[in-house]
Request: fold
Amino acid sequence: MANSFFKDLQCDNCGEVYSKNHINTFCQKDNQPLLSRYTINGSFSKNALINRPKNMWRYYEMLPIEKENNRIHLGEGFTPLINLSQLESNYDQSHLFLKDESGNPTGSFKARGIGMAVSKAKELGVKEICIPTAGNAGSALAAYCAKAGIKAHIYMPEATPETFQLDCKIMGAKVTLVKGTIADAAAMMTHDNDGTWFDVSTLKEPFRIEGKKTMGYEIAEQLDWKLPDVIIYPTGGGTGLIGIWKAFNELKELGWIDNIPTRMVAVQGSGCDPVIQSFKKGIHTISPHFNPATTIANGLRVPKPFGDRLVMKTIYDSNGTAVSISDKEIIAGLNEFAKTEGLFLAPEGAAVWMAYKKLKVKNWIKNNETVVLLNTGSAYKYAENLRF
Amino acid sequence: MANSFFKDLQCDNCGEVYSKNHINTFCQKDNQPLLSRYTINGSFSKNALINRPKNMWRYYEMLPIEKENNRIHLGEGFTPLINLSQLESNYDQSHLFLKDESGNPTGSFKARGIGMAVSKAKELGVKEICIPTAGNAGSALAAYCAKAGIKAHIYMPEATPETFQLDCKIMGAKVTLVKGTIADAAAMMTHDNDGTWFDVSTLKEPFRIEGKKTMGYEIAEQLDWKLPDVIIYPTGGGTGLIGIWKAFNELKELGWIDNIPTRMVAVQGSGCDPVIQSFKKGIHTISPHFNPATTIANGLRVPKPFGDRLVMKTIYDSNGTAVSISDKEIIAGLNEFAKTEGLFLAPEGAAVWMAYKKLKVKNWIKNNETVVLLNTGSAYKYAENLRF
Reply:
């Protein structure tokens, strides 16, 4: 079988190059995320995909795992792209789709990024991994580490719904609850880490984004390689937003698509919306959101994404935008979506739906455009937030 | 595009034939389930599948929906068949797989059967549907009815975890909680039904089994049309067990497989195991389990399956067997599986795993055999049962 085209890692800010054969974290010169680069050649064509299993590993040439037996597979990827026929009709939208990530292992899109990070950590001989999490990333880490035989240390805000804790514990992970936000959990984790745990915090580790980008490959493949006009994405750490954009650029390099018409929209909760604040100011960095409010959309409560520059760049480069949504709007969105399309979204997914409505009313989205909404996870894990 | 081969319905017991153009329930002569029959012709070959979307509708020639726009699609089907590499090694089993149904819409295998039943009801002009449920079938009915614009009336035991109720309510269904088992819920529903609600109780409606059988088509396709030696299945109403067996027989009729080596194993909870009791006696009917115990595996608490004759026939015809598992064993199985394979099973799935272990110890399953375990749903919906 063919191999991975993985070449090396590069800091997207200063250009410093890092070897693929070492355990890397982020750029040591300027504290920015590292991105994987590939030596693309013509041996990877669309036709190669026909007989491959429908999971995220089908794009392995453009993924960083070099030996097949290091791929840890729990069923991640190739989630359905569901046509929202009722809402298309109600909102006069020619093409409206939901990329529904709820069916992934541990019930969320985090399975992709964490699955990739743990697979690569296994390939590089890592024995213990730690993470601060709003919930789903912790569940995914616990699961992939269990299968890989790696010890997982998970730090989560004590306001995280209990199901996430249960999930991590049953997989054998060490779970520590921390007062405050994911930033406080990260601080406690750093304090506890004696240096032997490999930290897979969002974008402080280079490969979660390589897993997340497979959403972009799949959206393209499921739309027969014709990219949508708009993708609306719930943004906490922002890896998925950046990853989908990276995927589209790689598809262009591969020669599988000619152009990238897609405008990328970041959605955040109104109680913690640092991306929206920076977008309003037109700046490329993000200041930490002071005293962020609690929310039913736990995954959006990230005071400052480590990859802030990349998040903002994706929005600007794609002619995208950024939208704030309140918890009250999320609940209205959940109800409307469930009653109309029969899909019970995670709160983050409902925020995306409400962002669509705001952008449609403003005519930022036109009737004849193709729009893809992202639902990042299973509503069931949030049930204790949703007893309204 | 090609059409469905659907021909008519037949009582498998007395042979009475029913027209496909009417709303049918069960055989009016002998109160037995009706099975769909198809006029098979050579136009449906394995090659036809290559470019079809990976969901349960890819086998549409062998499904009863006649117009494409009546297929209600929420992302159901083509769930992963996961290689259990760690457990294979620990238990010296040459091939061990999990067909993991947890990623289906509403988090369970019920999406297949209910998706098919609601699609067919829509095709036949039904306006209101009712169901008694242990939980997951109700969630699925609420979802598919929401998208179809059909009113759903759902009756569930009051011991059903709260997440299932939330799920049904947010989709706009009318939910009624009933003291006792699913049998009591069914009695209350029958009392409330003024005759205008279409009852989709397990096997009292002919098409849920047609959805469930797609698990059999998929297992065959995912194993490259070489059927496994053993399938272990958690059995409440038994539709899936019967459905997989029906699928294998249809695949033989289609000429896609030559023989059916598979032994079908039914697993029940020890507090309510009428199938096991009948199997021990070697009889083809099932007596209601008196005063069934509550269990964390809600889906297994069915005192008497309506399709008892078909369930027992499947076990006997396939040289299968039937195994009882206690709640204590289920909890041990959940923990072992999660810590070894990184997969958090539903309690019903954990019962299947423990049944495997019992059958392996007895040498009923041999080391060199290929075994497929079924996990029927998402553990997250059961979280309140699992706070141990």
